[in-house]
Structure formats: structure tokens, C-alpha cells
């Protein structure tokens, strides 16, 4: 079973409205407004595996894995977004989820982070590869698609998978084995908030 991390972003003056995902896989979306800018948060979803979605918890404590701020920009929990996604039938492979968002609207810097703690026995190399590919494909859909040349890098002693969109935007994926959690992020802006995030992850 391949867990899909799907992102739809609406960034004022940066990204056009996100198109609907394929009708065969419902993609929950939630929108928050930060300093007057509407942002549609990425959803972490999977094909149903039989587990009821009601067992997927919104757990704000998952954001304890993240720094409180990234390059001086606070990371804020979005309970509304997480609750909407947790109620969808497509998140059965996750035990708990949380969303964080960091926005500097004056400098056009944006970071959206999805943290998903997986159920026992779900994670594997194929699973993680499918997760990354689906996430990158969706978040890059409105900025020219996924650019060639995804890389792996060691950042702060962790293996990090880094992708990019054709016309801007960088994705980061980290598996935190001790916490059974995937951290997936997309960032826009020249301050590279995603890289700063990964440097300061906590375990």
C-alpha cells in the first residue's frame, strides 16, 4: 500500500489556484488565512486500508518534532486543517496527524509542514518512495510540475529527500524512525525555510 501525501497550495502572487485531484481519490483540503492571505494546506492521504478514519487522531504534540520558529518565523498549528483531513476515509494508514504553517507575507516566504505518525508495519522503502512522488507531484502541479533531479542529502545527520518544482518551491521529506513519523514540507521563498526546518528537527 502506497501512502500518498497530496498538497494543494493557494499562494497569493506566487501560486495559482490548485486544481481538483483525481476523482478516484478524494483529497481533503482546508484553508486558513494568515495576514489576509488564503493558503490551502497540503493533505496527507492514502488509499483506504480498512481502518476507520475516526481512529486517526489530530495530535498537536506531533509538532513538538518541529522547531517553534524557522528563521524567526513562528510555526503555527492548524487544528482546523488537521481535523478536516483526519475525518476523511483516505487517511487510514496514519495513526495521528498535525499541520504546521509558517508565513512571512511581507517577504513572500511560506512553509507548510505535514507530520504523520504511521501505524505499525506501514512504512517501507516502496511506501516512502510513493509518498514522496505523490506529494511532490501534487504540490508542484500549479508551478510547472516537478523538476528533474531530486536528491538525497544528509542534514543534521538525517537522510533528507529533496525535490523541486519547475517554477519555484522545494519539498523536503524525512523519516523519523524513532517516532514512526514522516515530516513532509514544502517551502517557497529565497530564505529556504524548509532547509532551516530540517536542520532543527527534534527527536
Description:
This protein is α+β, with helices and mostly antiparallel strands. It is built from three helices and 14 strands. The protein has one domain (3-199). Strand 11 and strand 12 form a beta hairpin. The radius of gyration is 15 Å and the shape is globular.
Quick recap:
The protein has helices at 79-86, 125-139, 193-199; strands spanning 3-6, 30-34, 37-41, 43-46, 57-58, 69-70, 73-74, 76-77, 94-104, 109-118, 151-155, 158-164, 170-176, 181-188. It is an alpha+beta fold and 203 residues long.
**N-end to C-end Cα span:** 26 Å
Question: Which structural category do the helix and sheet elements fall into?
Answer: alpha+beta
Helix proportion: 10-25%
Largest sheet: 8 strands, mixed
What fraction of residues sit in β-strands?
A: 35-45%
Instruction: List the total number of helices.
Output: 3
- Total strand count, please? 14
Can you give the mean pLDDT?
75
**Helix and strand sequence:** EEEEEEEEHEEHEEEEH
Uncertain stretches? 1-41, 44-54
Q: Using only CA atoms, what is the Rg?
A: 15 Å
Q: In total, how many domains does the architecture comprise?
A: 1
Q: What is the overall silhouette?
A: globular
